[in-house]
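Side project, low priority. Logging it here so it doesn't get lost.
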Amino acid sequence: METRRDFLCGSVVAGTVLAGAAGAAEVATSGTCAAVMRRRIPRTGELVPCIGLGTSRTLDVDPAGDLSGLKAVMQRFFDAGGSVIDSSPMYGRAEAVVGKLLGGLGREDAFFATKVWTDKGREAGVAQMGDSERLMGAARIDLMQIHNLVDYATHLATLREWKAAGRIRYIGATEMKRFDEVERIVREDAIDFIQIPYSMKERAVEQRVLPAARDHGVAVLVMRPFERAGLFDRVEGKPLPEWAKEFDCTSWAQFFLKWVLAHPAVTCPIPATSKVEHLVDNMAAGVGRLPDEALRKRMLEHIGL
């Protein structure tokens, strides 16, 4: 069985029929590799690739340093049909590195997602968001999120103004723990996206948040789909089950990501990586069949969850 490091994108066949649990998606091809499926943003019907790229830790490097390795990661991300790049002022120099990489590649087709993260009031938020546009090289941020609900009411009012003026396209919020509040926001505040942790190990959002998102037409970005590498530790040294072939899975990374993608409320997991082989492996999870509910349960049982 191939390992995460050994996986080659050419091993996945484009156009495989999806399992019923996957929800609406479309499949495309990009170059010699299959491109990831796309999913609809509920508010508008716009299609976005179902695997994105996070930037926490991995892109917090010197923008003036050697970025050749990260440039290769970003190139392969687009080659595989990716576009959703998620960042934040919290992530140090990541926004600046995103801008430098995209400028070097000549890419103008990224879906820019970042965050406002300040408790210093409206004007501090406005200044920070302007900095994010400049650093990322974005003519317009596609998705601006209120990071960890910091000063939520203040920034929400600003984001609504910016969206109405066409300064941003979508409004979102991120949170790692206060899921009762996330559910309330989803039900009452008419935002476009939420970003939450969800993985085979972290499943608290299954009870109320994900159903609310599906019922109220809110797109879901998934942070920590690998439980910060904890899932890899759980299966270290273990072979992938033979029946993983039933949903076109050839690695543990795909096993974990396909389980997340198979939830009908999920729009796009955003795993972060600085390694080309891991990027290619992650993107392959967005190609081919997804497990149905019976297989998802079997997957949990197989790794002791």
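Brief comment: The CA atoms of residues 121 and 154 lie 7 Å apart.
Revisit when time allows.
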